[in-house]
Amino acid sequence: MKKSSIRVNRLFLVFGILCILYYLLEGITVRFGQSMLFIWPLLGLACLARWLLWKRAWKQGRAHPFPTWLLTVCRVVIALCLALFVFVEFFICREALRTPPEGLDAIVVLGARVDESGAPSGSLYERITAAADYLRANPETVAVASGGQGDDEPMSEAACIRDYLVAAGIDEGRILLEDQSTSTKENLRNSFALLEGRAERVGIVTNDFHLFRALAAGRALGGYALSPVPARSFVFGFIHYAVREFFAVILSFLRGDLLFT
Questions:
Q1: Which run of H or of E encompasses 230?
Q2: Quick check: 162 and 175 in contact, CB under 8 A?
Q3: What does the radius of gyration of the chain's CA atoms come to, in whole angstroms?
Q4: d(CA 260, CA 254)
Q5: How far apart are CA 180 and CA 170, in angstroms?
Q6: Which parts of the chain have pLDDT scores under 70?
Q7: What are the backbone dihedrals phi and psi of residue 244, each rounded to the nearest 5 degrees, phi first?
Q8: Separation between Cα atoms, residue 131 and residue 220, nearest integer Å
Q9: Do 90 and 126 meet the contact criterion of CB atoms below 8 Å apart?
Q10: How far apart are CA 209 and CA 230, in angstroms?
């Protein structure tokens, strides 16, 4: 058996273990039941299964456990999927690292979950903090607090954003309320309607990993020159959610909700 094949198989073993360990570490800071977190143990188990199948085949004197044609097809599919993943993640990371321009006419603060206590979730708190920082640095900019009320939320996400911005020293007169939306697309469409005739240059405030999809959705709606206003994430959170965003971007693109520019 070639040493290179053995090394590659060991890499699958190591990567599988790392995926499962990452899932355990991320579960401590996020929540094990959170959407898309399950992708890590599934990926880890797939890598471990690959390692085990090849190891068993070698013990039986075979180079690999499957027909050659099937392996070729799998390799091509995997290569194409990896190329698409890298392509999308490039755009996600590019938007996440951008610096917002000064003097925007308005910013739209996209909603996220409000906890049962009425406090913003971690993601929403990061968005509010980024919005407050921008509004303090740009006193002529107005804000749209956007987000409806879910069945398990004690108040609308928009109201939570407004209250925390006011507590951070932002004049309530600078904050418009959009409290009917239930998705990113609705956030943007309803917020843009509120800003009609009042703004041309608009910033989108959301978590850095979410900016690319939000901006692409906003451009698909049209009508404004859009800029990113990123709320920075911790490394663990960015890695997890950037991977999740890949699947969300693909799904949104297939639905026709995104405009790549």
A1: strand 225-231
A2: yes
A3: 22
A4: 12
A5: 23
A6: 1-2, 26-37, 261
A7: -60, -40
A8: 23
A9: no
A10: 8
The partner residues of 144 in beta bridges, in order of sequence, read: 108, 176
HSE, CB side, 13 Å, CA atoms: give it for residue 168: 22
3-state secondary structure of 169: coil
pLDDT value at residue 42: 85
C-alpha 108/C-alpha 177 separation (Å) is 10
Q: Give, for 243, the enclosing helix (H) or strand (E).
A: helix 235-254
Q: What is the pLDDT of residue 27?
A: 64
Q: What is the per-residue pLDDT for 33?
A: 46
Q: What is the DSSP letter of 103?
A: -
Longest CA–CA span in the chain (Å) reads 76
176: CB partners within 8 A, 6+ apart: 142, 143, 144, 145, 191, 194, 195
Are 205 and 108 within 8 A, CB to CB? yes
Distances (CA, A) of 10 to 24, 59, 62, 73: 21, 15, 17, 22
Six-digit token string for 110: 């996209």
Domain limits of the chain?
1-65, 106-254
CATH T-level topology, domain 106-254: Rossmann fold (3.40.50)
Give me the pLDDT at residue 164, please.
95
Q: What whole-number distance in Å separates Cα of residue 48 and Cα of residue 10? A: 10
Nearest to 157 by CA among 189, 203, 109, 210: 109
Residue with the two structure tokens 């925390």:
164
pLDDT at residue 71 in the model? 81
Amino acid at residue number 115: D
pLDDT on residue 173: 94
How far is the CA of 112 from the CAs of 22, 74, 241, in angstroms?
Answer: 24, 38, 14
Task: Check: CB of residue 145 under 8 Å from CB of residue 112.
Answer: no
